[in-house]
Amino acid sequence: MKPNHIAIIMDGNGRWAKNHNESRKFGHKRGAITARDIVRFTGSLGIEFLTLYAFSTENWGRPLKEVNLLMALFIETLDAEIKDLNNNNVKIRFIGDRSNLKKSLINKIDKAELLTKNNQGLNLTVAMAYGGRWDIVNAAKLIQDKIESNELNQVDIDEEQFSSYMQLGLNPDPDLLIRTGGERRISNFLLWNIAYTELYFCDTLWPDFVSDDLELALDFYAQRKRRYGKNV
Ligand code: IPE
Ligand code: IPE
Ligand code: MG
Asked: What CATH architecture applies to the domain 5-131+174-222?
């Protein structure tokens, strides 16, 4: 079986750069190229949803120079790729806390979402300034607002209702979560949505991750028996 929704923690750009005696900036640039290629490959496999972790709420704590170069790279990459993404029928969406993002980046994001909103191909979600805990707290606040305005009753809130206020909304949960770069942790990615996701960790640093590596992850996934707590 193929996963319907793949989520990826794209980690290891800095270490890749160090190994190649290059700047972190160069590592991130190579990482952006990998992201582009993996989006294309995933789309060509007919997978419906791909969610990429590009920048975490905790990544704001990096040196300002690195934060700024990452933000500039997001704009550059979006400018360079949006036409192709649209031509390939990709529907792009951004999730995360936009309150600290620069206006110029928010404008690009809004435009890209608008341009591709009716596309029927790959659903690409980019998690930018995203944190799993922020997502849950944000959903709780949205629900509180609805209760206060009498649009929602507390008794009606179940897991599905709650999900609809989360950033991924009613998109299916990820079936497979891939983390590159050797760490075996979630680093505050989609906490709510990965309750029953299959987890795949590999040592390959993100700029070195190619379609064959994705195939290995898909092989791993195909061998999983998903029980969801039942005994079958
Ligand atoms: C992932 O690469 C990219 C972001 C977190 C933005 P890193 O920059 O974390 O690379 P390492 O983990 O230091 O190698
Ligand atoms: C996770 O990588 C975030 C992204 C890939 C965007 P980090 O490099 O920030 O995670 P930690 O610090 O190793 O947990
Ligand atoms: Mg890292």
From this structure: 3-Layer(aba) Sandwich (3.40)
